[in-house]
Amino acid sequence: MSSQPVSKLPAAADNCRDSESLNDLISYVYDSVFDPSRWDGGCARIARYVGGTGAVLLAKDHNSEQVRIPGLFGIVPPPSVPFAQVCPALMRHFLGETEQPVATSDLMPFDQLARMESYRTWAAPQGLVDFVSAVIDKSAIGITMFGVYRHERDGFVDDDARRRVRLLAPHLRRATRIVRTFSRKAAEAAALTDTLDGLSAGLCLVDASGRIVHVNAAAQAILDADDILRTVNGQLVARDAQADRTLREVFAAAGQGDEALGTKAIAVPLTGAEGERYVAHALPLTSGARRRAGIGLTAAAALFIRKTAPVASARPEVIAAAFKLTPTELRVLLAIVELGSVPEVAAALGIAGTTVRWHVGRLFEKTGAKRQADLIKLVTGYATPLAD
Q1: pLDDT tens-digit map of 152-180
Q2: What does R_g of the chain's alpha carbons equal in angstroms?
Q3: 286 and 34 in contact (C-beta within 8 Å)?
Q4: What separation in angstroms does the CA of 63 have from each of 58, 96, 155, 169, 291?
Q5: C-alpha angle with apex 277: 343 to 141, nearest 5 degrees?
Q6: 42 vs 26: CA distance, rounded Å
Q7: How far is it, in rounded angstroms, from Cα 67 to Cα 55?
Q8: Do the beta carbons of residue 174 and residue 269 sit within 8 Å?
Q9: For 243, which DSSP code?
Q10: 336-361 pLDDT, tens per residue?
Q11: Each residue's pLDDT tens digit, 214-225
Q12: What one-character-per-residue DSSP string does 284-300 give?
């Protein structure tokens, strides 16, 4: 292997990558929600699309240095040594911002990497020279990220590879969150109806016009309450006019395919008549394994609805540790979930609105959230949606 890798992919490899349809790749990722055995195939497609020789899906618990490998393509993992020891910069990749690409060449010079024994004995024989990753999930349990390995013929990670990772990351993040919603039993079940009724999260399957195809028991209870959501001539309708318009756009986009939904809202906050807060988020069901799941063959989207978790069940100390929040940042985060608007949070905490906005900006930086709705979804994600 040469001591200095080439800096750009050959034109033939570039053309091969461009032949991979982004929309088809995104569809394949979402299909893996219902068929986890497809993750390895997804890694192969991701490697081709980003421009590398191999790809991997990695997971690490907060209280352990051990790294698990749910999906792998194109590289040979070390036979017995813990994966993190063979990849010196790997643990620093786990510290990246959510959905933002990070390359090993950003973290250390190649000359320094090439002198390490672990690199010479594992990466060098495979011709690996760089690795680009993105964190796609941070939870109370741990962190999940995906990454693509670059061969010496591919060169170092470039701006185009980063752009492609940035396009894929939101969809991989959404898919992994939906996977967590289902129990292992759900992943293995041939038909999902009984399992869906066992979820404490409400689930509505709807077509592109919002017509209800199926609801589980928790969603039926929400509809019967006629508070945040109701049915009108068989269609799912939100009580709040703005939320209803957003849901119409999401359902219509889902009917056009996975890539179209990527430009729409992922999470939709809903507020009840008594001020109770809920979050709804959608998964498109328009192709592949999702259409073969056994129910909802005419459904365009699955809408998950659940009540925001009380502060007591959200384990704020775990959230603070996971994202390295200061006590003030944690108070602002929990107040955003409970109260919503910046003026209400400022009044409740006795601080200026500008101070609240500054802390919200810091929360965005530390958690990878881009909107207040994302912060709400983050906190509610720390409470299990499965019924006891």
Answers
A1: 999 999 999 999 999 999 888 877 776 66
A2: 22
A3: no
A4: 15, 18, 35, 25, 38
A5: 100
A6: 9
A7: 15
A8: no
A9: H
A10: 876 667 877 777 677 888 888 999 99
A11: 888 888 889 999
A12: E--SHHHHTSSS-TT-S
Of the candidates 212, 259, 238, which has an alpha carbon nearest to the alpha carbon of residue 20? 259
Residue 231 identity (one-letter amino acid): T
Q: Which residues contact residue 155 at a Cβ distance below 8 angstroms, ignoring those fewer than 6 apart? A: 5, 6, 7, 8, 9, 129, 130
Residue 341 has what DSSP assignment? Answer: S
CB–CB of 148/5 below 8 Å?
no
The two tokens of residue 40 are: 């390895």
Residue with structure tokens 């807060």? 277
- Please state the pTM of the whole predicted model: 0.51
- Residue 286 CB partners (closer than 8 Å, separation 6+): 27, 254, 255, 257, 258, 300
- Give the C-alpha separation, 344 to 361, whole Å: 17
Token pair listed for 250: 């999401």
Q: What are phi and psi of 187, to 5 degrees?
A: -65, -30
Dist CA 57 CA 27 (whole Å): 17
